[in-house]
Design goal:
rod-shaped; 3 domains; three-stranded antiparallel sheet; alpha+beta; 8 strands
Length: 271
């Protein structure tokens, strides 16, 4: 009497006779002798595996939790089934060991910022596990590196202190810049005022110089009649004032009579 068993697609059928591996069957319908034989199906499809969080110590003695996800598939069904009692767990232990070694050579800040680098190094360290466990790791990824609660608290405090320091520096720089701009504006205003006053003074001086030059040029061409006319105007002004006392040089007394205004002044005095 024969029994049959179907080996599904992407599976390997391992025939055991009296508990001992005898041959391999591919996907399809296969017959075997019951009680003496059995067929074990081993999936060759890719499988995901998430390794639980576990502690890893960095080079600066910081405790962090690592979470790893990997994908693997069976490459040698015989080694996978018969040469290891638990090939998957053996592979997981190997991954953990390599990860501890890689992170253990890094300091905390470097490890937290180097997950891509760790992924590459971890994949290279694991390599092809076909000859050892009959499986191969197709993809591995560090999902999370999380510091312990105490370290996270210390990091948060440090981050807050750094932010406050940066904000203080920014405020100080802003105040210094404001003072600098205010001082510059004040100095510019003072310089502009001083320049304007200097320009005004120069303009007034130029005008005064022009006036003096004009008067001097006019006086240089004046004759005796001009000065006589000026004398008449001066005496006329004096006659109309309350004070009519005039002091002149003795040498000029004889010439007073030549001025028409003197006669009028004398007439006014006699009255």
């Amino acid at each position: 009497m024969l029994f049959f068993r179907i080996v599904p697609q992407n599976n390997a059928g391992l025939v055991e006779t009296l508990g001992k591996y005898s041959r391999r069957k591919e996907a399809g319908l296969h017959f075997y002798i019951p009680f003496f034989q059995t067929i074990r199906n081993v999936s060759l499809a890719m499988r995901p595996l998430r390794l639980p969080d576990y502690s890893v110590i960095t080079a600066d003695n910081a405790d962090i939790k690592a979470s790893v996800t990997l994908n693997y598939h069976v490459t040698d069904a015989i080694k996978y089934m018969y040469e290891n009692t638990d090939s998957v767990e053996s592979m997981a232990q190997l991954v953990r060991g390599h990860l501890r070694d890689i992170i253990g050579r890094m300091e905390l800040n470097e490890a937290l910022g180097s997950t891509t680098k760790i992924n590459v190094q971890l994949a290279e360290a694991i390599g092809d596990l076909t000859n050892t466990y009959g499986i191969n790791v197709d993809r591995i990824n560090i999902d999370e590196l999380r510091p312990s609660a105490s370290i996270q608290e210390a990091m948060d405090k440090q981050l807050t202190a750094d932010r406050e320091r940066v904000a203080t520096i920014a405020r100080a720089e802003g105040q210094a810049r404001s003072i600098e701009l205010t001082t510059k504006a004040t100095n510019d205003a003072l310089m502009a005022t001083a320049k304007a006053e200097a320009d005004a003074t120069k303009t007034r001086a130029d005008a005064e110089r022009y006036r003096i030059d004009t008067v001097q040029a006019g006086l240089a061409g004046a004759d005796d009649k001009y000065f006589q006319n000026q004398s008449i105007n001066a005496f006329s002004t004096l006659a109309g004032s309350a004070a009519n006392l005039v002091v002149v040089d003795g040498k000029d007394v004889s010439q007073l009579g030549q001025l028409p205004v003197v006669g009028k002044l004398l007439e006014k005095g006699s009255k």
